[in-house]
Design goal:
The chain contains 15 helices and 14 strands. It has about 400 residues and is an alpha/beta fold. About 50% of the residues are buried. InterPro entries: Aminotrans_V_dom, Aminotrans_V_PyrdxlP_BS, PyrdxlP-dep_Trfase, PyrdxlP-dep_Trfase_major, PyrdxlP-dep_Trfase_small, SP_NH2Trfase/AEP_transaminase.
Length: about 400
Amino acid sequence: MSALENISARPSFASFAPPSRTLMGPGPSDLAPRTLAALARPTIGHLDPAFVSMMDELKELLRYAFQTTNALTFPVSGPGSVGMETCFDNLVEPGDTVIVCRNGVFGGRMIENVQRAGGIAVIVDDTWGEPVDPQKVEDAFKANPQAKLLAFVHAETSTGARSDAQALAAIARRFGALTIVDAVTSLAGCELRVDDWGLDAVYSGSQKCLSCTPGLSPVTFSPAALARIQARKSKVQSWFMDLNLVLDYWNSAKRTYHHTAPINSLYGLHESLVQLAEEGIENAWARHARLHRMLRAGFEAMDLAFVVAEPWRLPQLNTVHIPADVNDADLRRQLLTDFNLEIGAGLGPLAGKVWRFGLMGHSCREGNILLCLEALATALTRQGRPADADAAFAAARRALAD
């Protein structure tokens, strides 16, 4: 029977009804009720005056989230990977030397982008779970004074490590280079100050600490980055991501058609950013840090060890070593089936060795932490590795009260 005949033979299809989960993996995060409601608002045309007005507000709200005055700040129609490609495709020309820092999966993806754009990647490697070493970056520039760009991940999602974006950007400036920064997991989850730190091209994702639906990538470009894009000698290799074309859609007073924007997803992002502005960006950073301490105390009461040292540990992405003799896949399956709780597995060389627990945006709540501690203690005990949920609760509550 052919596929078409098989479909025709079925009596009916039912509407998809997803289960209700608590999302505490590396993304996506839970959506706030207001954001979910915004996604269901009536669709209007992407050049409708009302939608155009919302686009202007959205840019202003993103400037607040990024802590920048950059005029070229907007959400790319695509996930964080498209935001990444937008930055590299526009700023890297064939033959350009780019220093790329790799201390996890996503630094590796930056190397791939440089190479696909025809650039020459000079790789600065650091151990997974550790921040980028500024001295290694300084040495790389001294050995490659022709380098025009420095690319690094501010918050490495594969490990939970934060690098010193301000220090790295200062090194790049001293050598006359611009920066491309992955802030997919850091935006709205920990301190990020684009203007104060002198960052040039920064991309993020809507589904992490902004707690919106996946599929949008907020980006921001400094005046120096925009000048470099406008002075290119060769065409951007991607028509869709060519900012010289996109500018007239997002930035001109009289918008011209470029593509049909994901209208309802942008409603959701706008609502998420309104809620961020209501909370206050510094309050959001503080909330993630405070509840990280609560989760950390509960984990430590169960003798779970963190991968990243305290000074460089992301509050919104907590990576712990899997205890010996515990089956990774079975435990995560138990959490999902018995508690409707999703956590993240390890990536690359950390696969099967670590768990990643997200405390991002709307998922960063006390109730989620208590559920996580209870579920984890139960699942560990079932696998013969006893864990005391009451002791973990007590430690978590003490940490929150401190």
